[in-house]
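Minutes, project check-in

Agenda point 3 was the complex the collaborators sent over. CS summarized: three entities, 1368 residues total, and the question is how they sit relative to each other. Sequences were read into the notes so everyone works from the same version.
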Amino acid sequence: MLQIENVSKTYPGARPVLQGVSLHLDAGETLALTGESGSGKSTLLHLAGALDGFDNGEITLDGTRLSRLDDSGRAALRRGCVALVFQQFNLIPSLTVAQNLSFHARLAGRQDPAWTKDLTERLGLGELGARYPEQLSGGQQQRVAIGRALAARPALLLADEPTGNLDETASNAVLDLMLELVRDSGPALFLVTHSERIAARLDRRAHLSGGRIA
Amino acid sequence: MIGAACQALASHWRRHPLQLGTLLAGLALATALWSAVQAINAEARASYARAASQIGGATLDVLEAPGGPMSRARYVALRRAGWQLSPVLEGRTRLGEEQVTLLGLDPLTHPPLPAFEAAMQADQAVLAQMLTQRGLLLAPPELVAALSDVPGLPPLRASDSVPPGMVITDIGLAERLLARPGQIDRLLILPQQPMQLTPLDQLAPDLQRRASRAGADTARLTDSFHLNLTAFGLLSFAVGLFIVHGTVGLAFEQRRAMVRTLRALGLPVRLLAGLMLAELLALALVGGLLGLGLGYLVAAALLPDVAATLRGLYGAPVAGGLSLRPSWIAGGLAMALLGTLAASAQALWRMLRMPLLSAPGLQAWAQRAAQGDRRMALAGLGLIASGIAALGLVKGLIGGFALIGGLMLGAALLLPPILAALLGLGRHLTRGPLGEWLWADTRAQLPGIGLALMALLLALAANIGVGTMVSSFRLTFTGWLDQRLVSELYLTARDDAQGAEIVRWLAPRSDAVLPIRAAEFTVQGNPVTVYGVVDHPTYRDNWPLLEHGPDAWAQVNAGQAVFINEQLARRADLWTGDAVQLAPGWVLPVAGIYSDYGNPTGQAITALPALLAHARAVPNRRFGVRIAPGAVPDLIEALRAKFDLPASALIDQAGLKSRSLAVFDKTFVVTGALNLLTLGVAGFAILTSLLTLWSLRLPQLAPVWALGLTRGRLARLELARSLLLATFTALLALPLGLALAWVLLAVINVQAFGWRLPMFLFPLDWLRLFVLALLAAGLAAALPARRLYRLPPSELLKVFANAR
Amino acid sequence: MLARLVLILALTLLAARPAGAQGFAGLGSTAAAEGFATPSPETRLSFPRDHGPHPDFRIEWWYLTANLTGPDGTDYGVQWTLFRTALTPGEAEGWTSPQIWMGHAAATTPQHHFFAERLARGGIGQAGVHSDPFDAWIDDWQMMGEDLDSLRLTARGAEFTYDLALTAEGPLVLQGINGYSVKSADGQASHYYSQPHYKIEGTLTLPSGPVAVSGQGWLDREWSSQPLAADQEGWDWFSLSFDSGARLMGFRLRGARGDFTSGTWIAPDGSATPLAPGAFQAAPLELADVAGRQIPIRWRVTLPERGLDIEVSPLNRQSWMGTRFPYWEGPVHVTGSHKGRGYLEMTGYE
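CS then shared the predicted structure for the full assembly.
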């Protein structure tokens, strides 16, 4: 599903963020990537999500070698087989909850109204469809972001500290829901977190330290 | 994919209707003022062209006698020599209360004329009526309406094919109405001539053959006027684009996060660029259409005054009605589209080059803007320098306007750095945390409101500059009128015979009767009116000479020299001591230059006998009468009773002055209106900037509120901040405005009218404008301040809950 | 020649097209009411006075046509016409004169037809006629001499000019009764006399250069105040000079009420005999396309009482006068029972 082989990344004028990282993820598998702040875990996630280019090595996503893609090829890949959930909720503020939920699926041309409706119900957003993101609590907003990601039926779900902005209760509830939905709908999950507690709930875990997998 | 992306982009405007409204309003205002000016210019030019074609013979050469009309016998003699010519007698005259141009033609020999053709189409007896004793006047419908109640006029017939302010009739009737029996002003040389003719230079060596200048005269005279209007339109357009630039910049800034999300979700950047461009063009189209509608209304409202000005100042035939032209619509929309692209290019470019992964936020924008201060300052200085260089390189009006453009835009670019420096200075001079915060926060706000302040600067400077120019002009003009209109009474006799009779009658009843007699000559290809004066202290003591040689009056009174007016001096580059050729064999030295603000054409004066020796049939119908001012009313009564003169034939000095000033004021009505509109647009720009900044400013205000400032206090501070910025801007606008005034007076006026005016300062006007600017800024700030005052604390708290 | 009344009345309207009879219908009956003089059988013509203008009559003309021959035998035709029309009766000085003058001149060759037109106001000297010595002019076109027996004729257009000397070889011919010519059963009439006996010498200059020409000419003088009947749409007018020395003037007015024909037979000695209405007959033999219209270009003309049965054919089929009021006017050849030359005028063909 996802093969990361000996990947390095250095931002201009800074010391190397990643130095020869290798990692793999099978279809339907869930992986937690932990590490301290600045260890490069978010960067690795971005590279896996085809959001950014890398200097050396190769990443193969669903059989596609990312190093060979140009900007529009990466955009097509993001649209088609990856979905993202960030620490900031990254909803589109001027679209309603319902519009945000179906947005990625519509962009990818894979809208499944029954699945979207099911997701909406299970995320407890049924009553909130006509509201705007700014009218929701943080936990609710993150549930919309998760729903948006899963509605597109991605092969790979990338999550960067998805509960980092939530209090503990909300965090647990959102995480439970996400893991349950991931299991039911079957994408692979690549989750970045600094929390051991969360990492423990996933199939596998990897630890990044100083730009290398420990 | 496209559908979803469009929905996301469009949803921004749905959630921010005010921003959308601002953008459209900015575009509409820019397009409106620009296209209004264009509509006025196009209408006026179309009027000139129409008039030229309606007068007929526009493409034919004409034959003229230098220094006055020719006799009818002259025409017949040339005809009997075989030349196919058609006579024209033309003059300004008063019918009832209307000043009209009377065009007398011979319908039998004149080339086909739209007015005749149309009239005869309607009624075949028209021609017969025109040629018989009763006569017929063809006039535009509005003139016919105005003249319908005037007793004693020949029958009138309305014709759409007669230019505004003009009456076309048979030459026989024209000689009677103009009291010029037996005279002909020019002969049209008809296109088809018989074979074996004796050349004209043998038959009539004294007559001058020249190419037609029907319409060309008007176009030349009015060019500067239209260029002035265009410059104003462009200024308004630029001010409107500031609004567009600011709004588009903010809208894009607010959509940064959305754009990043869209791209993260897999929307190709090229598609996104295309969609955003399409969005801008659609907005430009809507705004442009709104602007065209608005522009049409503005033009329709202003056109009657413009038409009156053009008729009064230049005798240019312009009707007060406006017609819709496809080229105008296309031009207006193109301006709107190009303007939008120009104003948005930077924002669009920045948005698309934005990296996919980086921290969003307004601060970044502000920081970048601050970094740009130095670059802007340099660009501003560069623009000013290139404006000055342009004046040196490109002579004439274009160079003058290039200078103004460089000066204004350069100064606008310099404004933010100067304001930043001033605010920094203020911060150093202030003690206390609140003061420091205020200065610093205002400084931080500058990038967001800077564009609106630039618009205000431009509008204020234009107001000061144009106001100073107009007021200086008016002051000079009033003084000049006092010098020039010295006689207590001006009268116009019906004809030369009555003129002579009146002079005899007046001789024992007045201090002096000064004949006002003139003939037209050609100097360097342009018409020059030469006046002949009698030797009288009235002239010597009052004539507004700008410069003169020794013994000037003695030479002029002896007919051995001329004074010429400033516009002739500048246009022909003739100065005191130079020789000017007024006619073949009539060359006189220039004894001096006098100021002349009464007309845009060249003029000269010399002794009356000298004029009469070189010009034929110089009318002797106008006189200035010197008499004790108190005796004027009685004299007018007596003259009217004795000679049966109409009221319009006798004008006292005060009446003439007030009439002249009325024409003057009318000339600048449009300038004033455009000025005010520009200021209004600038005020609107400030309002929209403040309103759009509003939501972005909450995070900056909330901490201060939390630290213990009431919302009322904050609101007052917000207001004070706006007033502070407006004050600085207005103070900076003053030197810029004065520089503009200087350019207008010393460069533009010289090029446009041919005279240079002294500059006067009007501090009271500045004060008025200053108050107006503060009022505009205050009003613009009042709305957001009031909102802040009424804001529920929960909204401010949200700032802390919603970490950004 | 009555038909030419229409032409001259068209002048008062300066219409670009022949305005049809209805435009003039009312004018005849109102001529007296408008103060115009009307022709009277009591009037006795007196010369040279009556060579000059009669400003109290609405219309008048001096109408000369000439058949000329060059040294190489080439035939030419020349026309010189001065029309006068009064908007109101009488004369005045300056532009206020109610008199309007119109000149038509033409030169016709077998290949070309050149023409020119002049318009002028009365009262300013641009056009006019003096009777003694005789001088008729418009612009630089002129017909002048001590009297009508000896004239110099000049005219000029863009492509032609001529300078001809005219000598009368016979007496004036008073048309109708003592120059009072009744024109219709309705009573319309004119004062009408002719000088059909001119011998001509002179120079005709064409674009190809000057040509010495000689031949014969025919002058018509007519004035009246009355126009045609309402139904009349046009006319065909012939002035023919036969080798025998006899001459024939005849015309056909085409009208809705039927054609009206009349004319005069002039014996070689100059004695004139009016023709009874209907005696003169003219029938088209061939139509030709001229200036976009069909015009009868060859005619059979008969006058049984004189044993006349001739064919009239043009020197140049395209003798079209494209003036403000357009018509066909040009030199013709006569063959058949009589041989000779002459002029043909045709109007009203749309």
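Noted in discussion: Helices of chain A lie at 41-48, 71-81, 97-108, 113-122, 138-151, 168-185, 196-199.
Follow-up: revisit at the next meeting once the mutant set is ready.
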